[in-house]
Amino acid sequence: MNGKINKGDNLKIMKKIQDNYVDSCISDFPYWLEFMGKYWDKGSPYEWTLPRAKELYRIIKPGGYVLIFGHPKTNHRMKCAFEDVGFQIVDEIDWLYMTGFPKNQDIGKLFDKRAGVEREIIGFVPTSKGIRPDSHNLIGDKWEHKGHPITVPTTELAKQWDGWKTAGLKPAKEPITIFQKPLEGTYCDNIEKYGCGGMNIDACRIPTDDKLVRPSIQRFDNEVYGKGLGAGIQVEPEGRFPMNIITLDESIWFSKYANPFPQWTDQELSKKTQTKEKTLTDGTKNTHPTVKPVELIKWLIKLVTPKDGVTIDIAAGSCTHGVACEELNKEGYSLKWCNIEMDEDEKGNSLGYIDIGKKRLMQLFNT
Ligand SMILES: C[S@@+](CC[C@H](N)C(=O)[O-])C[C@H]1O[C@@H](n2cnc3c(N)ncnc32)[C@H](O)[C@@H]1O
After folding, report:
1. Domain DNA methylase N-4/N-6: where (predicted)?
2. pLDDT tens digits, residue range 331-351?
3. In the chain, which end has fewer C-beta atoms inside a 10 angstrom radius, N or C?
């Protein structure tokens, strides 16, 4: 294995890393929304990020990239902290996943609740198994079907505001901000000195069945044009230029966009994004609530990290970044990686994330 998992506060651990050592950081920070009541998801995005961004600025090489997952509600504060310590914002990728659930409350129901009145039940929302024939029948004093009840408004205000919801839409994307530490001199100067600064576009091209042609002048000897001169068409072999939206879900890609992961069918995709990360080969569950797809992290690493570069994740959770690096190393990369994870609840008890991460890495070497 070409990497290390470090347990502890990322701020303290980063202080042990030398200046200008790391080529890239890909991290899924807390979103500071107290997700599932998690202690590590509390706090203020700007105050949490500022000292960490400062340390990242010190350890990242000039021209190196930092990619941070964010939430539309808190992302801007995290971005300000990176900008304030000197990073430049290069772009923002939208990772589309489409499987989120809307969390809105029904305003009509809120009015009825406030008035303390019952709402009449007129049916039940069908379950994934479909509507049962008895779903609307009362058996004794109980509804036979335990689905979500469909009710009608009772009070005048509830009738008036029926269909209105509290703020927000169905979550279907997560932004990933791309920061860059400023270059020293030109791209050429910087890359020659530090070995990083560019984006590996060709390694991240989006495969497509469309015939892509890029008109260009090719120099070759030609009877008509003479020595070293000639017109030609160059075909791009590796696919489309990567966009600043990405998805693993084939069903989202209309015919004009190619699926970036065409080796997977729809069914395999849902297995890859849900089962592969969530269940280990020995049946152990990955209990981390915000696991990211390995394939997505691999694609991000490839985009901004030299093949033999040093890459870090300072909020590693169940070590998806480490797993992605080791999978890439099996595919011909020689990445060195470091994962930092606090792995603690508010009482200092282990959450088991690092143990899960270690197991995920071990299973890679046993397959
Ligand atoms: C959003 S999760 C990352 C999940 C990860 N992408 C995965 O696939 O498993 C963020 C992680 O950051 C960790 N964390 C929060 N504050 C930290 C700190 N100060 N130092 C190290 N890790 C921290 C949390 O324990 C949590 O596991």
Report:
1. 22-345
2. 999 999 999 999 999 899 999
3. C
